[in-house]
From TrEMBL:
<keyword id="KW-0378">Hydrolase</keyword>
<dbReference type="InterPro" id="IPR036526">
    <property type="entry name" value="C-N_Hydrolase_sf"/>
</dbReference>
<dbReference type="InterPro" id="IPR003010">
    <property type="entry name" value="C-N_Hydrolase"/>
</dbReference>
<dbReference type="Pfam" id="PF00795">
    <property type="entry name" value="CN_hydrolase"/>
</dbReference>
<protein>
    <submittedName>
        <fullName>Putative amidohydrolase</fullName>
    </submittedName>
</protein>
<comment type="similarity">
    <text>Belongs to the carbon-nitrogen hydrolase superfamily. NIT1/NIT2 family.</text>
</comment>
<dbReference type="InterPro" id="IPR001110">
    <property type="entry name" value="UPF0012_CS"/>
</dbReference>
<feature type="domain" description="CN hydrolase">
    <location>
        <begin position="1"/>
        <end position="238"/>
    </location>
</feature>
<dbReference type="GO" id="GO:0016787">
    <property type="term" value="F:hydrolase activity"/>
</dbReference>
């Protein structure tokens, strides 16, 4: 599976500009055989939570149509980071994925809202795991702060997951946590973790370090970006998942009578 992670400097409160940025990066990869593309968290709006009335999608639009068109155009599954979407009287932080045939594969609403960035004041939390498949490969998805909840990720992986996608806006102040948590989640769940973070400054005092990463089921770094915006590429060998699960049979050895 060939994967492209697109980390970029999300323009605060400017969805049209952010859509144009991604579209421009996608022109760089025409005619390449790519299986999956991953975008960062809240990539249309940034954390402009006070302006969600104007910035959020309605019924997943217009971003749903854009992601669908990009998936068809690139021939890749697009795991579309996340975007704010109006939901009833409030808003959710939602990840959508579309296959190369334009079919929607996933709608996952961030479950753990990050109070340090006031998400709990402005957003409604999801309550369903993000399981989907790419071809025959079982995949899972979580969003940023969800990474700190191993019990939630275990539940996602038990639902079937060889590759876990993570979309993030994770600040530089906790870059060491970002790198360690991604590796830990890969080791304990014996799956690939593909994690895309944004770069740049949000203009409000928070800096984001990029460092998008791909980790294999043994916890080794397959690819890691630096702070610069752009593509990170990785090719992953899915057979490694079963190899690692055979070597240390963690899933067989769980004591589910003691915990679920
Ligand atoms: N956008 C987020 O959920 C940020 C999470 C974060 O920074 C953390 O330390 O956790």
């Amino acid at each position: 599976m060939k994967i492209g992670l697109l980390q970029f400097n999300v323009a605060y409160g400017l969805p049209a500009s952010n859509r144009a940025t991604v579209a421009k990066y996608l022109t760089e990869i025409q005619d390449q055989a790519i299986d999956v593309i991953l975008l960062p968290e809240m990539w249309t709006s940034g954390y402009a939570l006070k302006s969600l009335d104007q910035l959020a999608d309605q019924d997943n639009e217009p971003t749903g149509t854009t992601l669908r068109a990009w998936a068809r155009q690139t021939g890749a599954t697009i795991v579309g980071g996340s975007i704010p979407v109006r939901q009833g009287d409030g808003f959710v932080n939602r990840m959508l994925a579309f296959g190369p045939d334009g079919q929607q594969k996933l709608s996952y609403d961030k479950v753990h809202l990050f109070s340090l960035m006031e998400e709990d004041r402005y957003l409604i939390a999801g309550n369903q795991t993000g399981n989907f498949s790419i071809g025959t490969v079982p995949c899972g998805a979580v969003i940023c702060y969800d990474l700190r909840f191993p019990e939630w990720i275990r539940k996602t992986v038990i639902g079937g997951c060889a590759v876990l996608f993570v979309a993030a806006q994770w600040p530089t102040a906790r870059l060491d946590h970002w790198r360690l948590l991604i590796q830990a989640r890969a080791i304990e769940n014996q799956c690939f973790v593909v994690a895309c973070n944004r770069t740049g400054d949000d203009g409000r005092g928070t800096h984001f370090p990029g460092h998008s990463m791909v980790i294999d089921p043994w916890g080794r770094i397959v690819a890691e970006a630096d702070e610069q915006p752009g593509w990170l590429w990785a090719e992953i060998d899915l057979e490694q998942v079963e190899q690692v699960r055979r070597t240390i049979p963690v899933f067989r050895d769980r004591r589910t009578e003691l915990y679920s």
